[in-house]
Amino acid sequence: GKIAGADIEVYLLEKARVIFQQPAERNYHIFYQICSNAFPEIHKECLIENDPGKYHYVAQGMLTIDNVDDAEEMRITDEAFDILGFTKEEKLSMYKCTAAIMHFGNSQWKQRPREEQAEAEGTEDCEKVAHLLGIEAAELIKGLLKPRIKVGNEYVNKGQSKDQVTNSIGALSKSIYSRMFNWLVERVNVTLDVKAKRQYFIGVLDIAGFEIFDYNGFEQLCINYTNER
């Protein structure tokens, strides 16, 4: 017999890693691969530099790993996309979403004196995020500072503090990565799909990015509680 095909299911993606890493850990490898010198043209398209240490969401832990060449790994990643039938546009869109998260982490905000309202401390990073995601920068900033919420039967704009804006950006960044990850898996399954009836299968579990943390956030609490139940 031989393997006829494969099917991947998303079991658990550790989204917290996207915005925070322990000192001895890294973010997901793609963030460091995309900063490497493997494809300089991607830097121009994604508005990024080749130093991952300049991006807060990427630089909280280790920037390099012994015996790991991020440039070579990036070439392998890009080639894998080609083998799986991804188009040039699909690959670039994923790289842009990845870079948008990096820029999101560098955005700066400040609290207005004597007010429960934050304001942007420079808009360059948010403008880059908006450009990469194909949305209007002004609308993005407005949505972060004064999101539109429903109260009763009416919609109102609610002012956000600096901490609330920072938390919103973190949640958005994790959501972007999670949705991109899910789309990627679905896209890979299209290529790997086999129409023949499945008779036997081998299951392999690999939790993406799962580690034992010194500090556990709300996401880890939910995961642990669910597993124990």
From TrEMBL:
Keyword field contains ATP-binding: yes
InterPro entries: Kinesin_motor_dom_sf, Myosin_head_motor_dom-like, P-loop_NTPase
Biological process per Gene Ontology, one example term: actin filament organization
Myosin motor domain sequence ranges: 1-229
Domain of life: Eukaryota
GO molecular function: actin filament binding; ATP binding; microfilament motor activity
Gene Ontology cellular component terms for the protein in this record: cytoplasm; membrane; myosin complex
Annotated Pfam families: Myosin_head (PF00063)
Keywords, comma-separated and alphabetical: Actin-binding, ATP-binding, Coiled coil, Motor protein, Myosin, Nucleotide-binding
PANTHER family in UniProt: MYOSIN (PTHR13140), MYOSIN-11 (PTHR13140:SF857)
Family: Belongs to the TRAFAC class myosin-kinesin ATPase superfamily. Myosin family.
Protein name, per record: Myosin motor domain-containing protein
Organism: Adineta steineri
